[in-house]
Specification:
Rossmann fold, GMP Synthetase, Chain A, domain 3, 2 domains, seven-stranded mixed beta sheet, 17 helices, 25 strands, 22% strand, globular
C-alpha cells in the first residue's frame, strides 16, 4: 500500500498530514552538507557548548579547531579527497572530531563498532579500503595492532585517542585501568591538536550525493555491508529529528545510542550540529554513569534502544525526579513490547515514542508523532512503530510484489530522501536490496486503516510449525507481560514431528523468579496451540548487538 495524498486528508487523523503529498520540509539554506551544518553552527555560535563529556566541555569553536588540526595532519600524511578514515572508538569526543576531520579533507568516515574483534575489524578495513584509522589506545593494543600487519589492510596513518582524553574525572566504572603509553608509529590525537598552529582548513565543497559515512549493517543475517550514507541522507534525517520531535535550538541531547550506529550518528551527532545543542556523552553505556550524566546535565531529548532505556530506569537509586528534564524520549533499534514501554514510563515519567528505521534509511523512516501515543493492534498485541516521516513512501507487498490492502501482512518497502544510494562496492547486492532506489527492508508488517504501521517480524525469523506461521515477536510480547520476565527472545528449533517448533529464551527481573514450566503454561493460556513455546530456557543475559538488538541468530545457532 502506498501512503499518498488520497489517504492522508482526514480531519480526525492529524498525524497523516505529516507526510501528506510526500513533500519533505525545506532544508536550512546553510545545511547543504553535513559539514556545512557544523560550520554554520560554529560560525553563528562559536562559544556555545557542543560536547559535554564527564566534566569536560568542548565548544563549537574548540571542536572546529580540533577537527582542523586532525584534518591538516591527515592531509600531510597523504590522506586525500575520497579517502576513508575509520573511526574505532566509543562515544567519545574523538569520534566527533574524527568525523569532522574526514569531511574537512573531502573524505568519508567509516563507522566501526568498538566491540568488533580482529576478524571483524580486518573485514571492515579491507572492505572499505580505509587508509587512516582513529582508534582508542586500548583497542589498538588489544585488536588493531595485529590487524594492521595484514598486507591487505591499506591503513597507513594511525591516530590514537583515549577514553580519558578531554576530561579529568577518569570514572573507573567505564574507563578502566591506566591508559596505554603512545604506541610507536602512531599519532596521538591530543598531541596533534595541541601542536597545531595553522588556520581553519578550507574543506572541499561536498556534493549532497557524496558519501559522508559508511555505516555497516549489523551482519545479524549475513556478511556486513557498507551502507553509503550521503550528506543528503544525513542532513535530511537530522532535520526530520528536529522538526518531528519539536526540538528547539540549544536543548541538551543525551547520547545513549552508540555513535558508530546510524541512530547515534544522526539522532545525536548530526542533530546536535543542526540544533546547536550540547551533546552529552559518557564513553560507553553504563547505566549508573549515564544516570549521573542525566542528573548533572539535564538533557531534554534522547533516542536509544529500549533495552538501554530499561537498564537506565532500573539503575540503583533512579527516580522519576532524575529524568524530569527529559521532555522527549524515543526508542528505536529493537521492538518495544507494550508492557515494557508501560514499565519504563512509570520511572521515566515520559512516554517512550516508537521510531523505526534501518542503517539503509539513515535512521528513521517511521516515527510516532510527538505527543501522540502509539496504538496497539488488538489482534497481535503489537505496538505501532508510527507513520512514515516527511517525504517517505512505504509500500506493503506480498510475495509476488503486489501491493497489499490495509490490514494484510507483507514486506515493507521504503522510498524517500533518507534511503542510501547503495552498498559500498556491492552493485549486485544494491540492485537486489534496493531495486530502482526502493529499499526492501526484509521486515514484515502491515498498515491499519488509520495509516499506522506495525512490524510483525524479520522475514527470515518466521517459524514454520507444522505448516503454521509463528512470528517470534507475538510470542515475545506475551512473555513480556509476565511480571518476572525482563527480556525475551523466541526462535524456531528443529522438531521431528512439527519440522520446527517454538523455543523461548528469557532473563529475569531483579529478585524475580519463574520456572520454565510456569512460563510455558503462562503462554499456553494466552496463545493458540501452535504458537506457544514448547520450551523456555532461563538465562542470565540475552546476547545483543552494541545497539541493544537481541541476537536471535546466536540463540538459534548456539
Amino acid at each position: 500500500m502506498t501512503v499518498s495524498t488520497s489517504t492522508a486528508r482526514y480531519a480526525d487523523r492529524p498525524w497523516l498530514s505529516l507526510y501528506e503529498d510526500g513533500v519533505p520540509p525545506d532544508l536550512d539554506p546553510d545545511f547543504t552538507s553535513a559539514l556545512a551544518a557544523f560550520d554554520a553552527a560554529a560560525a553563528a555560535s562559536p562559544d556555545a557548548t557542543f560536547l559535554r563529556y564527564f566534566d569536560g566541555v568542548l565548544t563549537f569553536a574548540e571542536t572546529a579547531r580540533a577537527a582542523d588540526a586532525l584534518a591538516a595532519r591527515l592531509s600531510a600524511e597523504g590522506f586525500a579527497p575520497g579517502d576513508r578514515l575509520a573511526l574505532y572508538v566509543q562515544n567519545d569526543p574523538g569520534f566527533v572530531i574524527g568525523l569532522l576531520a574526514a569531511w574537512k579533507t573531502g573524505g568519508t568516515a567509516v563507522a566501526v563498532n568498538p566491540m568488533n574483534k580482529q576478524r571483524e575489524l580486518r573485514y571492515l578495513l579491507t572492505d572499505s579500503g580505509a587508509t587512516a584509522l582513529l582508534v582508542l589506545d586500548d583497542l589498538y593494543a588489544a585488536v588493531a595492532r595485529e590487524v594492521l600487519e595484514d598486507p591487505e589492510v591499506r591503513v597507513r596513518t594511525v591516530v590514537t585517542t583515549a577514553g580519558r582524553d578531554f576530561q579529568t574525572r577518569d570514572d573507573p566504572r567505564v574507563l578502566g585501568p591506566e591508559p596505554h603509553p603512545p604506541a610507536p608509529g602512531t599519532l596521538s590525537l591530543t598531541e596533534v591538536i595541541a601542536t597545531y598552529d595553522g588556520g581553519p582548513v578550507v574543506a572541499p565543497v561536498a556534493s549532497p550525493d557524496d558519501v559522508a559515512v559508511l555505516t555497516y549493517t549489523s551482519g545479524t543475517t549475513g556478511v556486513p555491508k557498507g551502507a553509503m550514507n550521503t550528506h543528503a541522507n544525513l542532513t535530511f534525517n537530522a532535520q526530520t529529528y528536529r522538526d518531528w520531535m519539536h526540538l528547539a535550538e540549544g536543548e541538551p541531547l543525551l547520547g545513549i545510542a552508540p555513535l558508530f550506529h546510524i541512530t547515534g550518528l544522526v539522532g545525536h551527532v548530526m542533530l546536535a550540529m543542526l540544533t546547536r545543542a550540547p551533546l552529552v556523552l559518557a564513553h560507553r553505556f553504563e547505566p549508573s554513569v549515564v544516570l549521573d550524566a542525566v542528573r548533572e546535565h539535564r538533557p531534554v531529548f534522547t533516542v536509544g534502544a529500549i533495552t538501554a532505556l530499561s537498564a537506565l530506569t532500573a539503575a540503583p537509586g533512579a527516580t522519576p525526579d532524575d529524568f524530569s528534564s527529559l521532555r522527549v524520549v524515543y526508542s528505536g533499534g529493537a521492538p518495544i513490547a507494550p508492557a515494557v514501554g508501560d514499565r519504563i514510563e512509570k520511572v521515566l515519567g515520559a512516554y517512550v515514542h516508537n521510531i523505526y528505521g534501518l542503517t539503509e534509511t539513515s535512521s528513521p523512516s517511521h516515527a510516532v508523532p510527538i505527543g501522540v501515543r502509539a496504538p496497539v493492534d488488538p489482534a497481535s498485541g503489537a505496538l505501532s512503530v508510527g507513520v512514515p516521516v516527511f517525504g517517505t513512501v512505504v509500500r506493503v507487498v506480498g510475495e509476488d510484489g503486489s501491493d497489499l490492502p490495509a490490514g494484510e501482512v507483507g514486506e515493507l518497502l521504503v522510498t524517500g530522501p533518507q534511503v542510501v544510494r547503495g552498498y559500498w562496492g556491492k552493485p549486485e547486492e544494491t540492485e537486489k536490496g534496493m531495486p530502482g532506489g526502493e529499499l526492501r527492508t526484509g521486515d514484515v508488517g502491515f498498515m491499519d486503516d488509520d495509516g499506522w504501521f506495525y512490524l510483525v517480524d524479520r522475514k527470515k525469523d518466521m517459524i514454520n510449525a507444522a505448516g503454521y506461521k509463528v512470528w517470534p515477536r507475538e510470542v515475545e510480547d506475551v512473555l513480556y507481560t509476565h511480571p518476572a520476565v525482563r527480556e525475551a527472545a523466541v526462535v524456531g528449533v528443529p522438531d521431528e514431528y512439527r519440522g520446527e517448533t517454538v523455543k523461548a529464551f528469557v532473563s529475569m527481573q531483579p529478585d524475580a523468579t519463574a520456572t520454565s514450566e510456569e512460563l510455558v503454561a503462562f503462554c499456553k493460556e494466552r496463545m493458540a496451540a501452535y504458537k506457544y513455546p514448547r520450551e523456555v530456557e532461563v538465562i542470565t543475559e540475552l546476547p545483543k548487538t552494541a545497539t541493544g538488538k537481541i541476537l536471535r541468530r546466536e540463540l538459534r545457532d548456539g
